Amino acid sequence: ALTIENFIMIKPDGVQRGLCGVIIKRFERKGYKLIGLKMLNPTEEILKEHYKDLADKPFFKKLVNYISQGPVIAMVWEGVDIVKQGRRIIGETNPLDSAVGTIRGDFGLEVGRNIIHGSDSVASANREINLWFKADELIQWKNHSTEWIYE
Ligand code: DAT
Ligand code: MG
């Protein structure tokens, strides 16, 4: 089982609505390991870099304004298949298309208030982790449950 890392961010609506605990719990209970976490007010600069692939989209400015209201919770989660499984835990981009049981499916209604970000590939996860975190902000630790989560 190949262990990888994923960048997950609770957006300002998730923070304001008091969903941080339940969101973190969904990754924790699945067996993933939290190796980085911080609250911050993101600058427009970092958000424009983070979402640079969407710079030409008509919703780009609204998207950056929404998340730059802050604060956000930026996290790095580690474990097998965390990028793909993270997308499954989060749901579809539009909360109305997201299955009940996913974060967006359970807690959201609009694409412009979809609560959480998760990287869409291993390459973008690595890019986003490097954008949001310094190396010394990632904590390598041994979870005592590891041998009861992994065979
Ligand atoms: P995701 O967050 O599911 O990876 P994305 O990377 O395509 O989705 O887009 C990033 C964010 O941009 C998304 O979470 C919400 C916003 N967004 C995407 N498509 C949109 C649309 N059609 N209208 C408004 N906002 C949109
Ligand atoms: Mg995306």
UniProtKB/TrEMBL annotation:
<protein>
    <recommendedName>
        <fullName>Nucleoside diphosphate kinase</fullName>
        <ecNumber>2.7.4.6</ecNumber>
    </recommendedName>
</protein>
<feature type="binding site">
    <location>
        <position position="59"/>
    </location>
    <ligand>
        <name>ATP</name>
    </ligand>
</feature>
<keyword id="KW-0808">Transferase</keyword>
<comment type="similarity">
    <text>Belongs to the NDK family.</text>
</comment>
<feature type="active site" description="Pros-phosphohistidine intermediate">
    <location>
        <position position="117"/>
    </location>
</feature>
<feature type="binding site">
    <location>
        <position position="11"/>
    </location>
    <ligand>
        <name>ATP</name>
    </ligand>
</feature>
<feature type="binding site">
    <location>
        <position position="87"/>
    </location>
    <ligand>
        <name>ATP</name>
    </ligand>
</feature>
<dbReference type="GO" id="GO:0006241">
    <property type="term" value="P:CTP biosynthetic process"/>
</dbReference>
<feature type="domain" description="Nucleoside diphosphate kinase-like">
    <location>
        <begin position="4"/>
        <end position="140"/>
    </location>
</feature>
<dbReference type="GO" id="GO:0006228">
    <property type="term" value="P:UTP biosynthetic process"/>
</dbReference>
<keyword id="KW-0547">Nucleotide-binding</keyword>
<keyword id="KW-0418">Kinase</keyword>
<comment type="function">
    <text>Catalyzes the phosphorylation of ribonucleosides and deoxyribonucleoside diphosphates, other than ATP, into the corresponding triphosphates with ATP as the major phosphate donor. The ATP gamma phosphate is transferred to the nucleoside diphosphate beta phosphate via a ping-pong mechanism, using a phosphorylated active-site intermediate. Through the catalyzed exchange of gamma-phosphate between di- and triphosphonucleosides participates in regulation of intracellular nucleotide homeostasis. Inhibits granulocyte differentiation. May be required for ciliary function during renal development.</text>
</comment>
<feature type="binding site">
    <location>
        <position position="114"/>
    </location>
    <ligand>
        <name>ATP</name>
    </ligand>
</feature>
<comment type="function">
    <text>Independently of its kinase activity, facilitates mitochondrial tethering prior to membrane fusion through its direct membrane-binding and hexamerization. Implicated in repair of both single- and double-stranded breaks in DNA through its association with the ribonucleotide reductase complex (RNR complex) via its interaction with the histone acetyltransferase KAT5, this interaction enables recruitment of NME3 at DNA damage sites where it plays a role in the repair of DNA, independently of its kinase activity.</text>
</comment>
<keyword id="KW-0067">ATP-binding</keyword>
<dbReference type="GO" id="GO:0006183">
    <property type="term" value="P:GTP biosynthetic process"/>
</dbReference>
<feature type="binding site">
    <location>
        <position position="93"/>
    </location>
    <ligand>
        <name>ATP</name>
    </ligand>
</feature>
<feature type="binding site">
    <location>
        <position position="104"/>
    </location>
    <ligand>
        <name>ATP</name>
    </ligand>
</feature>
<comment type="subunit">
    <text>Homohexamer. Interacts (via its N-terminal region) with KAT5; this interaction enables recruitment of NME3 at DNA damage sites where it plays a role in the repair of DNA. Found in association with several ciliary nephronophthisis proteins, including NEK8, CEP164, ANKS6.</text>
</comment>
<dbReference type="GO" id="GO:0004550">
    <property type="term" value="F:nucleoside diphosphate kinase activity"/>
</dbReference>
<dbReference type="GO" id="GO:0005524">
    <property type="term" value="F:ATP binding"/>
</dbReference>
